[in-house]
């Protein structure tokens, strides 16, 4: 029995001292590399999705800020220009000057001082430019009218303005196709709804939907 045990112990020691072969080591390294790469990709996707959701809510909060300014009778002061209780709005257009020259990567808050229901071309009514982070941009913006149906940037719209004017919190939507529907003391005729699609380079999309009653919702694309 002792000879058998010695033989087994000797074989065990030889096996333990042999170690890993080069092929076994390469297989283990490949497996660990694959697992690590998978975890990194999933983490990047999670971070991108989280940032995109936060950005969509930031757009919604900007619209809500314009609504608050418009309803609360906020005084507008820009140098020597002073306007009491103008309409306030948020403006979306690919022609805006964004950080880094990236198209559709910013939008702005403006005051409708002259009462034409849209942003002034000379930027005299601009209040604040909101720049999106690198890799994020506005994929599309749309407005649905009572008589003209839904029109989008992807089908020809050049800009969309969402404005709020006291004394009610209702939203008015004007576009390059219907630019005069939110003029002061006019009855809006293009005010069914509007939406903004925010996307990332990874292809994920969040949509900010706005109704004429001032309701703002954030959801995934198509909701």
Explain the overall architecture.
The chain is α+β, with helices and mostly antiparallel strands and 223 residues long. It is built from 2 helices and 12 strands. It has a 5-stranded antiparallel sheet with strand order 5-4-3-8-9, covered by helices on one side. A hairpin with a 3-residue loop joins strand 6 and strand 7. It is elongated. It starts with a helix and ends with a strand. The model has no long low-confidence stretch (mean pLDDT 80).
Summarize the structure.
By secondary structure, the protein is α+β, with helices and mostly antiparallel strands. It is built from 2 helices and 12 strands. The longest helix is centred in the N-terminal third of the chain and has 50 residues, at 22-71.
Features:
223 residues; five-stranded antiparallel sheet; alpha+beta
Instruction: Please tell me the overall pLDDT.
Output: 80
Percent in strands: 25-35%
Order of helices and strands: HHEEEEEEEEEEEE
Q: Measure the end-to-end span.
A: 77 Å
Outline the low-pLDDT stretches: none
Number of helices: 2
Q: What's the overall geometry?
A: elongated
Assembly state here?
Answer: single chain
Radius of gyration: 29 Å
What profile does the largest beta sheet have? 5 strands, antiparallel
Strand order of the largest sheet: 5-4-3-8-9
Lay out the secondary structure.
Blueprint: H1 2-18, H2 22-71, E1 76-78, E2 81-83, E3 87-92, E4 106-112, E5 126-131, E6 136-145, E7 149-152, E8 160-164, E9 171-175, E10 193-200, E11 205-210, E12 216-220
Antiparallel strand pairs: 1-2, 3-4, 3-8, 4-5, 6-7, 6-10, 8-9, 10-11, 11-12
